[in-house]
Automatic annotation (TrEMBL), chain A:
Keyword Signal: yes
Keyword vocabulary terms for this entry: GPI-anchor biosynthesis, Signal
Name by which UniProt lists this protein: GPI-anchor transamidase
Organism of provenance: Dromaius novaehollandiae (Emu)
GO biological process, one term: proteolysis
């Protein structure tokens, strides 16, 4: 990690230099466009797709998950960036009259199993423990790369779950369940470990809204198929296969996603309206209060695709090296009003979140160089440092950092 | 607890039980009987519903369209059966083999304890033939059974034909997750017992068989098919198995659901359900259906070949095709489609059927009464015995307390008289207990053991000898020396008979309670007859009336009345003589059920219930 940091810094410095050199003459319109161009703050996309139900009569849950898998893969997220967890293998179930297929539409219209499905966690590997370990990255070193979520603080992650749930829990495999509190804590850990930039959580289960109501970490948008006290209903009964093929909510999400292509400008607000009560029977819910951006400005492809932004321009654009539109910092005066006080434990995430781009972390080896670099670079360093601390140093050392942090905040004059 | 430890309250309670004993008993009896009669009312009997998630709805596309093939198989089978003069084993093996099944045969032999005159068999030799359809994509760890009895005469050819046509169709499908066993069993229940014992590698009766070579894992469910006509007008489902065991209600629900899907008429106890529910005739109709089920279940006899599966915890039903004079007939394809649908849904099972009820009564196919609803009816009847026993207990303990310490002044003359008498020991109760139970054991063992002696001395056949010996011993029990206590204590004391009655009431309550847990119908039928008389009987008062009543409620007479009631309910009334003939057949059948399949009704009556009844007879003739 220590070797990677200087390399990245060099690369950035070089890029800034280049941009700075050619940024002399610019039309303001093109400038705006360029700012728009950098609006979304992510550089890579990940997807964790989970079906928690076994058994033939839960065919629809596997089809749900596979249909989302199909969509994200079609929109450009490679298998290496998808962690697919399927609790049962419907395609090879002896009861399946059409082996090696999983259909999402009646009359065998759409086979979501396709030719190339890479299932990372299958059957009894789909457990609460494995799911939480994948999210938080606390997995044994021997775990193969395909089974890891190797995201960073520039990753947009899509998490899709389906199965049988109740008020505040989702059942895994008939033997255990994950509660909404556990899930919220896992997301907080991810945030603290800088494992995501923004996170989209979708759940299709009975009383799905109960699963996201305990979230408290920033930059999370959540959708659910039904409100607390409501059942999610199945769809597409097929007499030939003898089961329901899909759940209503995911069925309409899939219909919606089939219309999306990499250049689509469709935004999240459209996704919220994808399944009105007249179609779903249940009332789909969503939660955006933790999310920093306006859902209207968030493209579907920000989460469902891995879209590299390419714009070819004849103009010369000079970019402000301190461009930080995506830093999503809250107003500073709000911060200033807050009195300083000792926290019970080291609230690393909170501090980072509140202090924005002020470099607050003292370190034995990087502090001095950090002061001289740009805000963006500082943030990167900070992240690395925190990761470093969280991973390596003991609690005793944490205490020292806490003091340093408070000292530095005082020094910065806020 | 305060109620019992506080002497004043306790006195009040005991006074209440003593004073109001007879009205309370009467009330309890009326409540029990009324509760039972109310079971057929719609609010008490909710609609049936499918509980098993894996089977869910009837969502399946049936494609069986080989009714004609079934009929041609049936004709071919009939021809070969006629030619072979029995079960055409070789032809069945060849045909099943050609269909692509794994075919096995299982010869078996059984000598009956005495000749069965109704079915005319004594030394039975037969062969079961079965073919296993292996699930193409699953391990052979679970299986389903479709069984067809190969009966004597012209019966059941169409069932064999349909089974073969279904086997041929099923062979072409790839969605099987369980093996399917197609079984043709000879000599109906005997063959079935032989096959089941061999399949599970046990020998609980004296069946001799070669054992089975081919196995297909644990059997999850079984359907037995009886079909004797080319077209059917309706299907009757039989659920009652050995000892009144019932299959899981979901299996019955499954059949009902597919009947409805295919528009097939289906009946239970031969009664079609009425569309209206709130009228008096409708109530009478469902009560009839309910009573028929209670009588059949109470008999403890398997009502079809499925009945023996239940002992192995395999859910099973028998389906009987009925061809009556109704106009609309269904062909083999519709029947086959219904079976196909059922098997596809059973194929989806992930565990044994266990979600729905195992203890229920059916006033119609679409309504059920669960155990929690019908048990109170029995509880009220048992309460009478408890109340009466408490009454006797308090009277006896009052005598112990002596006149000086008496807490209350009872008005019972018997209690007054008892005080002055010397206290008889419990020893006096031992001889009647021993004699009664010895009579019971004789009733159980002697008829079968002594049949040859009887045939040598009397001009009767073995079967008649057994039945007549049973009746003779039963009647002789009444005339046994029941007055042994007089030798010991001089004359019968009041304390003596009260203690004996207390003992027999508690004994009866325990027996009925136990049997009702296993077989509610049997327990209820016995309780509803025996309990009131058992509670009333005493050596004082109108003794001959009591004696007549007591004879009227003896289990044998209950059986006779039960047969009469059954014939009335199936709208096939019989004369007294015919009823007697049926009674003799039922006694022989009950014994055979016990020796051949392990039915508990005969030993229960002979070893426990009859001695208990004799104890009551003793009480009556105490003085």
């Amino acid at each position: 990690m220590a070797a990677a940091v200087p390399a990245a810094r060099w690369a950035r410095a070089a890029a800034a230099l280049l941009l700075g050199c050619c940024g002399a003459a610019l039309a303001s319109g093109v400038q705006d466009q360029a700012e728009q161009f950098f609006k979304s703050g992510h550089t890579n996309n990940w997807a964790v797709l989970v079906c928690t139900s076994r058994f033939w009569f839960n065919y629809r849950h596997v089809a749900n998950t596979l249909s989302v898998y199909r969509s994200v893969k079609r929109l450009g997220i490679p298998d290496s960036h998808i962690v697919l967890m399927l609790a049962d293998d419907m395609a090879c179930n002896p009861r399946n009259p059409k082996p090696a297929t999983v259909f999402s539409h009646k009359n065998m219209e759409l086979n979501v199993y396709g030719d190339d499905v890479e299932v990372d966690y299958r059957s009894y590997e789909v457990t609460v423990e494995n799911f939480l370990r994948v999210l938080t990255g606390r997995i044994p070193p021997s775990t193969p790369r395909s089974k890891r979520l190797l995201s960073d603080d520039r990753s947009n992650i899509l998490i899709y779950m389906t199965g049988h749930g109740g008020n505040g829990f989702l059942k895994f495999q008939d033997s255990e369940e994950i509660t909404n509190v556990e899930l919220a804590d896992a997301f907080e850990q991810m945030w603290q470990k800088r494992r995501y930039n923004e996170l989209l959580f979708i759940i299709d289960t009975c009383q799905g809204a109960s699963m996201y109501e305990r979230f408290y970490s920033p930059n999370i948008m959540a959708l659910a198929s039904s409100q607390v006290g409501e059942d999610s209903l199945s769809h597409q009964p097929d007499l030939g296969i003898g089961v329901h093929l899909m759940d209503r909510y995911t069925f309409y999400v899939l219909e919606f996603l089939e219309e999306i292509h990499p250049a689509s400008q469709t935004n999240m607000n459209d996704l919220f309206q994808v399944c009105p009560k007249s179609l779903c029977v249940s009332t789909p819910g969503h939660r955006t209060d933790l999310f920093q951006r306006d859902p209207q400005n968030v493209l579907i492809t920000d989460f469902f695709g891995s879209v590299r932004k390419v714009e070819i321009t004849a103009e010369t654009i000079s970019l402000d090296p301190n461009l930080s539109a995506f830093e999503s910092k809250p107003p500073k005066d709000e911060l200033a009003a807050e009195p300083l006080k000792y926290a019970e434990q080291l609230p690393v995430a909170q501090i980072i979140h509140q202090c924005g781009d002020i470099a607050v972390l003292d370190s034995v080896f990087l502090w001095n160089s950090m002061e001289e670099t740009s805000a963006h670079d500082m943030k990167k360093c900070k992240t690395i440092l925190i990761d470093h601390f969280l991973n390596i140093y003991s609690y005793k050392f944490f205490k020292e950092i806490k003091l340093c942090v408070l000292y530095k905040i005082g020094e910065a004059g806020i | 607890m305060g109620l019992l430890s506080d002497p004043y309250r306790r006195r009040a309670l005991s006074r209440l039980i003593l004073r109001l004993n007879t009205p309370l008993c009467l009330l309890s009896y009326v409540a029990g009987l009324g509760w039972f009669l109310a079971l057929a009312l719609p609010p008490v009997a909710p609609r049936t519903y499918m509980s098993e998630n894996a089977m869910g709805s009837t969502m399946v596309e049936e494609q069986f369209a080989y009714g004609e093939r079934a009929l041609s198989y049936a004709r071919e089978f009939a021809g070969h059966k006629k030619k072979a003069g029995g079960m055409p084993v070789a032809w069945l093996e060849k045909t099943m083999w050609n269909l692509g099944l794994e075919v096995y045969k299982q010869p078996f032999a059984r000598t009956l304890p005495f000749p069965d005159e109704t079915r005319e068999r004594y030394m039975v030799k037969g062969t079961n033939v079965y073919g296993i359809l292996r699930a193409p994509r699953a391990a052979s760890t679970e299986s389903l059974v479709l069984s067809v009895p190969c009966s004597e005469g012209q019966h059941n050819h169409q069932a064999v034909g349909l089974m073969l046509a279904l086997a041929s169709y099923f062979r072409g499908q790839i969605y099987w997750a369980k093996d399917i066993i197609f079984l043709v069993n000879e000599h109906d229940l005997l063959g079935m017992e032989a096959w089941l014992e061999a399949y599970h590698d046990v020998n609980i009766t004296e069946m001799q068989s070669s054992g089975t070579l081919g196995r297909a894992g644990a059997i999850q469910a079984a359907v037995s098919l009886e079909l004797s006509s080319d077209v059917v007008t309706s299907f009757d489902v039989a659920v009652e198995g050995l000892n009144g065991q019932l299959p899981n209600l979901d299996l019955v629900n499954l059949f009902h659901a597919f009947c409805q899907k295919n528009g097939l008429l289906c009946t239970i106890q031969g009664k079609l359900q009425r569309s209206d529910w709130d009228t008096l005739p409708a109530y009478a109709h469902s009560l009839q259906t309910l009573l028929l089920m209670v009588l059949k279940q109470g008999s403890g006899r398997p009502q079809g070949d499925h009945g023996l599966f239940l002992r192995y915890h395999i859910e099973a039903i028998t389906l009987r095709g009925i061809n009556s004079f109704r106009q609309y007939k269904y062909d083999m394809s519709t029947v086959g489609k219904t079976l196909e649908g059922m098997f596809r849904k059973l194929n989806n099972l992930l565990e044994r059927l266990h979600q729905s009820y195992f203890f229920y009564l059916l006033p119609s196919l679409s309504r059920f009464v669960s155990i929690s609803v019908y048990m109170p009816a029995f509880g009220f009847l048992i309460l009478i015995l408890i109340l009466k026993a408490l009454d006797l207990w308090m009277k006896l303990s009052k005598c112990d307390a002596g006149p000086a310490e008496r807490l209350w002044d009872g008005d019972q003359g018997a209690a007054h008289a008892a005080v002055e008498e010397p206290r008889p020991g419990l020893l006096t109760l031992v001889p009647p207990l021993l004699i009664c139970h010895a009579t019971g054991l004789t009733l159980y063992f002697l008829p079968v053991l002594g049949q040859h002696v009887a045939t040598q001395h009397f001009p009767v056949s073995e079967a008649e000898a057994v039945v007549l010996t049973v009746i003779a011993i039963y009647v002789a029990g009444l005339a046994l020396p029941h007055n042994t206590h007089r030798v010991l204590t001089g004359s019968g004391s009041d304390r003596g008979w009260m203690t004996l009655k207390l003992l027999s009431l508690l004994y009866l309550a325990m027996q009925l309670g136990c049997i009702a847990l296993v077989n509610f119908s049997l327990g209820f039928l016995l309780a509803v007859t025996m309990v009131p008389v058992a509670a009333a009987v005493q050596p004082t008062g109108p003794r001959y009336l009591y004696a007549a009543l007591l004879v009227l409620v003896t289990p044998a007479v209950t059986l006779l009345l039960g047969i009469f009631l059954y014939q009335e309910l199936i709208e096939y009334p019989v004369s007294v003589l015919e009823c007697w003939q049926l009674f003799l057949q039922a006694v022989a059948g009950g014994l055979l059920d016990h020796y051949l399949y392990g039915s508990v009704v005969f030993p229960f009556v002979a070893i426990f219930l009859y001695p208990c009844w004799l104890l009551l007879w003793n009480v009556l003739f105490w003085k």
